[in-house]
Structure to design on (962 residues):
């Protein structure tokens, strides 16, 4: 089957093109591949884009130019000019040659494809018969491939002999998708890597290809708001950058905004957009029309809020002032400062990365910055919904208009051409299946002795995370079995690495010093024996409060072994994460948005912390999902023994989850339970602190007066001490 | 002190303060007879250093090591001649982030966990005017024997932020050990108290502490010490 990817909504009303596409489908039902409607990369100097670009593994690439005219509309044709409806246009035949030249130049950069692919163009005149044309112009177009109203097209496609090999097909798709600039090597050459380092090199050389969902998300230009959801590793930022580059390519005069929340994303986004843009145009984007802006901005760096204030001629709010209005979220105060002013819509398209990090007030500001039909595309990390937070609806984000109706809704039919309003990316590329499933199971606590701490309670939610419910209903006390199809975790590590190292290792130690020793020696082994580059390794501290206590001794141990490392972000979050030649030592927070081939998550015993367990499960999820290949988990004492037991049970059931569905009410009460625990600790601290200030003679006297109370306190303390010793 | 002794002094000092210094980039460059740091770039030494400059220094690795407590930067640069035996240039600097300490670290972590606070804080701090990109506090000791030993510009002098004309003469260039102990005593008194003083705030081991001043660089011969107050680097 050939998947038709419609990039513009005008396909909905383009009957001649639909007619041509139906004819192709009917004539070649066995054909497999992809066909693009108005792919932006093939654009002539006069701005014409061919209607179809058809690629298959079995036939040569074809560009199809559809001319939607009746014979009466064409009055004259010559070598350079056709006159249609009294207007002179570039000869479609010459345009066709331009398309072929453009396509050839794309594939011609690769030595192998250069020899194998011979793109050609087909003219389609679906409203004219061959005879009508020849009578009117006394000229046949026999030397060209043409689809006539009445022609048989069964011989129009030219086979490739032999068919494209899998790697050649990947490369062909990668080039046409424009994702090729992200490919570091020339394709997957080594499949049986025996060392971790060789496996990493092999994965690095893997040809980048978008899957069908990603391709649509990147190429389609929705005529109105669009939400793209996906979990970590689904490629959200890359796709959005690609979308921006494509829109800029297609509509260079339009104003585009790309905005985000994390400062350090700026360079990454700029570099991605430039790469994608340059791949198709040999020039750099026009940054006057394509704005990459942090949501806030500053006097030294433009930003959405800062620019808006500047345009309105009002001063920006200082942090202290914004905090005095909204301590927890000062950005809301900033947005509110400008929201009710007369904001000019200045952007034709807005792309919002990390949408989950923004308050509704920012979306309402963006709404005002775009004219109708408000082409705002926002990508949302599903992580929040995984941990029980409701994904805010577009109605909540964009607010209501004067008549009380939502400014934005994603309800109803798709946009014309079948362009989705709400997109879900199901496949996670960063993590291998075992690691991702472990992260989900730990994060939600499926195998936690006290039962899950979070739960997806709807079938659709599980599906949006790429899971399938095999058996059981999602109701209290029901045993459920959930699996993850391999296709939804297409990370190639298991296919590539054939050495002895397990993907997931967990270790328990008696004390922290031994844990640190193990981490340092294991990293030493990774670098010296397994030939892994230091920058491909991250060490993440799960226990957030002890990071400054734990990371220096690990760094010292590495140093003593002759290995360099870096703790990024001590001064500022914009610092580089994986510095060349250095192992990265990090907190979970700092590791967010970054990835490494090998991830060590230590102090994992914090998973069973009395009050922080819920938070630490969220952190564990984030830490584990930083891994592009292997994870090494360690911790100490009884907390780690419990965690290891949980990990072993999860791994034993993979690739499935089997658990008893929890009482959702109980899960909703967990926050209250944690608050109670925090209160109890405070109470215990206050009481014991009070006790330490009392004269021992007074306690002695109390023991005489109330021996029962004294014994009770004594027993309690002894029990805790005994437990701690064991 | 020669090149090797100086570098040895640096290494032992970093180990002597347990788990306090991180992100070491210090380097002994035998070919160029100096102690500096990885990817060392020579820069003009300026007086007005803002937070954005500090961030740039941190992000481009222009430092010898950082304090784990607050990310403050140390730069230790010593250059030798005559077969690594004679010190020819020294620049020893400390740049304070002036923000965190062990005491408020927990609070910061709490904020860290609540949201992407640091990003916001920085963007906002930059968002109004220059005062939101504040001048940061720093201290620096410069030594260049080519400079005359004049009262107002001694060959070895101590500089600190916000006083561009203040150059306090020193009688000797501090060794790495002396400089680091000095900075910790001045800027992290709680740490100095914990590791060097007893409960009455007297040295916990005077004999041991005095050994930190040996080996050391020789005293500089100058009349300036008879004219104006100066800083005396202990040398035995």
């Amino acid at each position: 089957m050939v998947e038709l990817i419609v990039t513009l909504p005008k396909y909905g009303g383009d009957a001649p093109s639909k007619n041509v596409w139906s004819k192709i489908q009917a004539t070649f039902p066995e054909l497999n591949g992809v066909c693009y409607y108005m792919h932006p990369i093939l654009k002539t100097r006069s701005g014409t884009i061919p209607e179809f670009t058809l690629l298959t593994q079995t036939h040569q690439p074809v560009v199809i130019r559809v001319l939607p005219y009746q014979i009466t509309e064409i009055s004259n044709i010559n070598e350079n000019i056709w006159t249609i409806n009294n207007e002179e246009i570039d000869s479609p035949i010459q345009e066709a040659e331009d398309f072929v030249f453009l396509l050839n130049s794309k594939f011609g950069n690769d030595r192998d494809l250069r020899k194998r692919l011979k793109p050609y163009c087909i003219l389609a005149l679906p409203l004219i018969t061959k005879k009508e044309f020849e009578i009117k112009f006394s000229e046949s177009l026999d030397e060209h491939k043409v689809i006539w109203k009445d022609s048989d097209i069964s011989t129009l496609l030219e086979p490739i002999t032999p068919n494209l090999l899998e790697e050649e097909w990947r490369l062909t798709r990668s080039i046409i998708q424009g994702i090729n600039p992200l490919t570091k090597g020339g394709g997957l050459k080594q499949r049986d890597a025996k060392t971790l380092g060789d496996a990493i090199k092999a994965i690095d050389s893997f040809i980048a290809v978008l899957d069908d969902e990603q391709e649509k998300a990147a190429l389609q230009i929705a005529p109105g708001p669009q939400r793209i959801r996906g979990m970590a590793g689904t490629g959200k930022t890359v796709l959005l950058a690609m979308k921006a580059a494509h829109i800029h390519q297609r509509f260079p005069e339009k104003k585009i905004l790309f905005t985000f929340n994390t400062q350090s994303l700026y360079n990454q986004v700029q570099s991605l957009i430039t790469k994608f843009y340059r791949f198709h145009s040999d020039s750099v984007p026009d940054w006057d029309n394509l704005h990459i802006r942090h949501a806030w901005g500053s006097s030294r760096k433009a930003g959405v809020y800062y620019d808006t204030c500047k345009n309105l001629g009002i001063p920006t709010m200082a942090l202290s002032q914004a905090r005095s209005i909204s301590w927890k979220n000062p950005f809301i105060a900033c947005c509110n400062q400008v929201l009710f002013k007369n904001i000019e819509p200045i952007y034709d398209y807005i792309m919002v990365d990390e949408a989950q990090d923004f308050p509704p007030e920012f979306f309402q500001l963006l709404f005002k910055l775009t004219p109708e039909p408000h082409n705002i595309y926002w990508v949302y990390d599903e992580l929040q919904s995984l941990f029980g937070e409701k994904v805010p609806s577009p109605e909540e984000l964009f607010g209501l208009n004067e008549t009380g109706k939502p400014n934005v809704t994603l309800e109803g039919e798709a946009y014309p051409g079948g362009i989705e309003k709400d997109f879900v990316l199901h496949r996670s590329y960063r993590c291998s299946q075992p690691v991702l499933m472990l992260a989900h199971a730990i994060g939600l606590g499926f195998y936690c002795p006290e039962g899950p701490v979070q739960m997806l309670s709807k079938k659709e939610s599980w599906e949006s995370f790429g899971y399938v419910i095999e058996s059981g209903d999602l109701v209290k006390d029901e045993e459920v079995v959930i699996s993850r199809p391999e296709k939804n975790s297409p990370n190639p590590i298991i296919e590539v690495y054939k050495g002895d190292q397990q993907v997931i290792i967990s270790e328990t130690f008696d004390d922290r010093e031994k844990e640190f020793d193990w981490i340092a020696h294991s990293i030493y082994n990774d670098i010296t024996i397994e030939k892994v580059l230091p920058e491909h390794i991250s060490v993440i501290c799960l226990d957030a409060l002890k990071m400054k206590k734990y990371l220096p001794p690990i760094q010292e141990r590495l140093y003593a072994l002759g290995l360099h490392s870096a703790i990024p972000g001590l001064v500022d979050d914009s610092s580089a994460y994986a510095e060349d030649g250095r192992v990265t030592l990090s907190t979970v927070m700092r590791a967010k948005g970054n990835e490494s081939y090998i991830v060590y998550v230590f102090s994992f015993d914090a998973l069973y912390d009395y009050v922080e367990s819920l938070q630490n499960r969220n952190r564990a999820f984030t830490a584990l999902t930083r891994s592009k290949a292997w994870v090494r988990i360690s911790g100490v004492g009884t907390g780690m023994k419990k965690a290891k037991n949980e990990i072993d049970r999860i791994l034993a059931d993979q690739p499935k989850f089997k658990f008893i569905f929890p009482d959702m009410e109980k899960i909703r009460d967990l926050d209250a339970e944690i608050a109670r625990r925090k209160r109890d600790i405070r109470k215990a601290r206050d009481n014991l602190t009070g006790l330490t200030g009392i004269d021992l003679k007074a306690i002695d006297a109390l023991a005489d007066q109330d021996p029962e109370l004294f014994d009770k306190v004594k027993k309690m303390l002894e029990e805790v001490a005994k437990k701690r010793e064991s | 002190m020669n090149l090797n002794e100086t570098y040895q002094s640096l290494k032992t000092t970093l180990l002597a303060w347990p788990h306090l210094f991180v992100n070491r980039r210090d380097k002994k460059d035998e070919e160029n007879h100096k102690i500096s740091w990885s990817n060392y770039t020579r820069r003009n030494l300026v007086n007005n250093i803002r937070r954005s400059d500090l961030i740039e220094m941190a992000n481009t690795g222009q430092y010898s090591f950082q304090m784990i407590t607050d990310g403050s930067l140390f730069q230790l640069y010593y250059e030798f001649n005559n077969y690594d035996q004679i010190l020819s240039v020294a620049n020893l600097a400390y740049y304070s982030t002036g923000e965190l300490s062990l005491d408020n670290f927990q609070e910061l972590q709490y904020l860290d966990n609540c949201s992407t606070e640091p990003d916001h804080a920085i963007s906002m701090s930059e968002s109004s005017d220059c005062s939101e990109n504040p001048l940061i506090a720093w201290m620096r000791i410069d030594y260049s024997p080519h400079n005359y030993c004049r009262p107002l510009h001694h060959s070895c002098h101590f500089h600190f932020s916000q006083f561009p004309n203040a150059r306090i003469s020193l009688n000797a260039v501090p060794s790495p050990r002396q400089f680091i102990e000095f900075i910790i005593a001045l800027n992290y008194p709680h740490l100095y108290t914990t590791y060097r003083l007893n409960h009455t705030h007297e040295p916990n081991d005077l004999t041991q502490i005095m050994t930190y001043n040996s080996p050391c660089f020789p005293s500089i011969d100058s009349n300036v010490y008879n004219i104006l107050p100066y800083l005396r680097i202990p040398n035995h």
Q: What stands out?
A: DSSP finds seven helices and nine strands in chain B. The CA atoms of residues 193 and 201 of chain B lie 7 Å apart.
